[in-house]
Amino acid sequence: MLSRAACSTSRKLATALGSLSSRQKYTLPDLPYDYGALEPHINAQIMELHYTKHHAAYVNNLNATENKYLEALEKGDLSTQIALQPALKFNGGGHINHTIFWTNLSPNGGGEPKGELLEVIKRDFGSFAKFKEKLTTVSAGVQGSGWGWLGFNKEQGRLQIAACPNQDPLQGTTGLIPLLGIDVWEHAYYLQYKNVRPDYLKAIWNVINWDNVTERYMACKQ
């Protein structure tokens, strides 16, 4: 006959396994346009590979890593939990960043924002042209792989520009709420622009979805 302790352990294990099996897995978000919709600024081959290979890899690796993390958590295995943190940050950040990125782009994008967002950009950067130049410069200056961001500092009520290395998520590492992200990993542009990142950065402004950026800004204020 099983002891009370053994029965208790079995129940705990069953509960743990049940919680793991019922956890909702992360999935690729729907792309809101066709792969070729952003041409000629970003070609279809880049978009397809970026979405179906790179973003998908972050999602798959995030799910696998989180499963390992939850198992370690249930076992009280602190060493494994700590060892998994970099993978959670990298793949979780990759999923967060790209989910924002796809919505920041639109075949009907480009130009300038309107209304309150434009006025706040002028207030915090002097003009839209100065803002655009600064975000482009910061993005171009990322060493290796990473992101350029327009974020909202909720404590100060102001817009800020920041760069994040690798797949570091903006809010999780700086506290800024992400509004607009520019992916400067080479997989985002190399097949079309080779190693000339400035040409890619010049082109991407033609497909920025200011309606989406505005929605994100307005949500921050609530």
Numbering strands along the chain, what is their spatial order in the largest sheet?
2-1-3
Please summarize the sheet with the most strands.
3 strands, antiparallel
End-to-end C-alpha gap = 59 Å
What string, H for helix and E for strand, traces the elements in order?
HHHHHEEHEHHH
Percentage of residues in strands: 5-15%
Question: How many helices?
Answer: 9
The average pLDDT is 92
Shape: globular
Runs in which pLDDT lies below 50 for 5 or more consecutive residues are 1-18
Summing up helix and strand content along with how strands pair, one would put the structural category as mainly alpha
The overall strand count is 3
Taking all Cα atoms into account, the compactness measure Rg is 21 Å
Helix fraction by DSSP (H/I, runs of at least 4): 55-70%
Summarize the structure.
The protein has 222 residues and is mainly α. Helix content is 59%, strand content 10%. Residues 1-18 have low confidence and may be disordered.
Structural account:
It is a single chain. It is built from nine helices and three strands. The chain has 222 residues and is mainly α. It has a three-stranded antiparallel beta sheet with strand order 2-1-3. A hairpin with a 4-residue loop joins strand 1 and strand 2. The N terminus is likely disordered.
